[in-house]
Write a structure and sequence with these properties.
Elements: H1 27-41, E1 46-51, H2 54-59, H3 62-68, E2 73-79, E3 82-87, E4 92-96, E5 102-107, E6 116-122, E7 126-131, E8 138-142, H4 162-169, H5 176-181, H6 191-200, H7 214-234, E9 263-267, E10 270-274
Antiparallel strand pairs: 1-6, 2-3, 3-4, 4-8, 5-7, 6-7, 9-10
This protein binds a DNA duplex (12 and 12 nucleotides) through loops.
DNA sequence: CGTATCCTGACC
DNA sequence: GGTCAGGATACG
């Protein structure tokens, strides 16, 4: 699938974030988005729900959208990268941004923002819009008592240490990087922060997950927190002027820690950037 | 584990 | 006008 890679081997870093300045919503971004939604929508009643894209209309059919009118939002919870809008009637609107979703809040009378896929008009005259240029976000209405998404411990859980991570990794085969992307292992890490966390922990992404001992797993947990905390600080959505990521998107550049050359490989179909010099197997 | 699918904008 | 990225899921 990557034939033509041989010849013209100039090395401008591949555009890993096709949306330019916008990064994929991972835990810090979803956390911010959920906070924005919480401030705007909790204790508000939905007046009308409208789907502006067939992919959303498919998942949230006309009946479901109609049934949202009159529903009051009592809480907005985040679990991993999932957002759970708790409704007063016990139902849950389950939202996942996937690659490119975000919330935008504005007056209901204003024209919908570009790439708006779902509109929730509220009883205070405002409107929450799910914007998503890729239109891959998912929205599902769940009945009262429906099981929560199957997720591992929160990446930000303070009680998650090397020992707990070892438990979460139990029985997992294969290299650590793809394993970290499995939300049932740890909830909240995506491609960007998984790579960042491994760089911080100085662990080669190709290392077999099962071969990692307590010491390195402790380091990995520190790395995960470090990466996520940096994400919270950086506000990666609009990061152009801000701190750059340590390895992600830096293929061909010098490692800021050891001056090695950052490499990019593909694991489980996802690109992984790492420093082959200071990240060890 | 890998590959295909969904979807669209940005870059070639 | 083709390629590709990305998260989650389904399937081989």
């Amino acid at each position: 699938m990557r034939q033509g890679a041989r010849k013209g081997a100039r090395t401008p870093s591949p555009r890993l974030t096709p949306l330019g300045f916008r990064h994929v919503p991972e835990l810090p971004e979803v956390d911010r988005a959920a906070a924005l939604l919480r401030a705007a929508a909790v204790d508000r009643t939905i007046r009308e729900a409208r789907a502006l894209h067939p992919a959303i209309a498919r998942r949230l059919d006309a009946g479901a959208r109609r049934s949202l009118a009159g529903a009051r939002i009592v809480a907005v919870e985040r679990r991993g990268k999932h957002q759970l809008l708790r409704l007063a009637d016990g139902r849950t609107l389950h939202v996942h941004f996937r690659m490119a979703g975000d919330w935008r809040v504005a007056a209901a009378a204003a024209p919908p923002p570009r790439h708006a896929r779902l509109l929730l008009d509220l009883d205070d005259g405002r409107r929450v819009a799910l914007v998503d240029p890729r239109a891959l976000s998912t929205v599902d209405l769940r009945a009262p008592g429906a099981p929560p998404p199957r997720l591992g411990p929160e990446a930000t859980d303070p009680s998650l240490d090397g020992a707990a991570l070892r438990v979460a990794l139990r029985g997992r085969r294969g290299p650590i990087k793809p394993v970290l992307l499995d939300q049932r292992v740890v909830a909240g890490l995506g491609n960007i922060y998984a790579a960042e966390a491994l760089w911080h922990a100085r662990i080669d992404p190709r290392t077999a997950a099962a071969s990692l001992g307590r010491v390195r797993l402790d380091r990995l947990m520190v790395g995960i927190r470090h990466a996520l905390a940096a994400g919270v600080q950086r506000d990666t959505r609009y990061s152009d002027g801000g701190t750059r990521l340590a390895v992600y998107g830096r293929e061909g550049e010098a490692c800021t820690r050891c001056d090695g050359t950052i490499r990019r490989i593909v694991q489980a179909g996802r690109s992984t950037c790492f420093c082959p010099r200071c990240q060890r197997r």
